[in-house]
Specification:
Layout lengths: L10 E2 L14 E5 H5 L5 E7 L2 E9 L1 E6 L2 E6 L2 E5 L5 E5 L4 E8 H11 L10 E4 L3 H19 L5 H20 L16 H16 L6 H8 L3 H12 L3 H19 L4 H7 L5 H12 L3 H13 L1
Parallel strand pairs: 1-3
Antiparallel strand pairs: 2-9, 3-8, 4-7, 4-9, 5-6, 5-8, 7-10
Helix pairs in contact: 3-4, 5-7, 9-10
Length: 303
């Protein structure tokens, strides 16, 4: 079978699917068998505009396609798949492990807090866990993330934040044999289009609550709004405005789920001039009014 060419590879919103991010969290965690058995153990080559995958393969076999290379590997191992990286998997039916997916805002936060240590999340790589001690440490971290993710508890967000930071540093340590002693791995080289997209996403993260016009974003990037839109459609399969709206929607879901703010307060905090406008925006993108979404989230958490 030939390796997929980038222009032929679809841009997905989740793990091998086109459905929207399923959670108000900035992190998603599930076992590899949960998702892969739905696809007959084969996730075809695809890429994500704004998601980072960390796969922990505890046992079993995976045929991995990563950025044009293909290899067959057995666990234990860790696989890092940055945004816009072409990747595909064919798992054995005895596969064991988890996939931790980070939304771009969380990846940006890790970069701000950890500096170069977060560079490992921008470099597509596969790390074999040959040393039992390292394998146990990584497995324990991933299991803790999975347990905390699935069972909400007081301090859950802070605990997940700490665990994901620890996971990132552990991955960086695995990558360090490939770098000069005493240094953290640096970011992967990317073409200017990807650099511009990353800069735009960083601007969205810093300014989305003010809802700047796309022309303002383009001006800050030193390009026309038409160029910015073309870039976003080529690399992210969405317009610049859609990327801004997706970040607003994600934050709205988080606030409706995890705070006691009224709908009007949420609308105001996200830069909407009127609650009615926010309600129309939210319902158009989710199919639910904000109050109905909040009720469904809270009902689901107690069942």
């Amino acid at each position: 079978m030939s390796v997929a060419h980038p222009s032929q590879v679809p841009v997905f919103k989740l793990y091998g699917e086109t459905r929207h991010w399923p959670t108000p969290d900035l992190l998603h965690c599930e076992s590899i068998p949960e998702r892969s058995r739905l696809h007959d153990w084969h996730i075809r080559p695809h890429r994500h505009a704004d998601l980072v995958h960390v796969l922990h393969v505890a046992g079993g076999q995976v045929e991995l396609e990563l950025e044009g290379t293909r290899q067959t590997l057995r666990g234990p191992l860790a696989i890092v798949v940055p945004a816009m990286t072409i990747h595909g998997f064919r798992f054995s039916q005895d596969i064991e492990g988890h996939v931790v997916t980070l939304a771009q805002p969380l990846a940006e936060q890790l970069g701000q807090r950890l500096g170069e240590w977060a560079g490992v999340l921008r470099h597509a790589d596969c790390h074999r866990l040959a040393q039992p001690r390292k394998a146990r440490r990584l497995a324990t971290l991933v299991e803790q993330i999975d347990a905390e993710y699935r069972q909400p508890a007081p301090g859950r967000d802070r605990m997940l934040e700490a665990l994901v930071q620890s996971l990132t540093i552990e991955l960086s340590r695995l990558a360090m044999p490939h770098a000069p002693p005493g240094t953290a791995p640096g970011p992967r080289q990317r073409d200017r289009g990807h650099e511009h997209l990353a800069s735009f996403q960083a601007l969205i993260e810093a300014q989305y609550r003010h809802q700047p016009r796309i022309e303002r974003f383009a001006e800050q990037l030193g390009m026309s709004s038409a160029h910015l839109n073309a870039l976003c459609r080529r690399l992210a399969d969405r317009s610049a405005l859609q990327l801004l709206h997706e970040r607003l929607l994600l934050e709205a879901k988080r606030q409706l789920t995890y705070t006691n703010m009224t709908v009007s307060q949420v609308a105001d905090s996200l830069g909407f001039s009127e609650p009615a406008y926010f309600t129309r925006f939210f319902k158009r993108n989710t199919g639910l009014a904000p109050r109905d979404f909040r009720l469904r989230q809270h009902t689901g958490a107690t069942t």
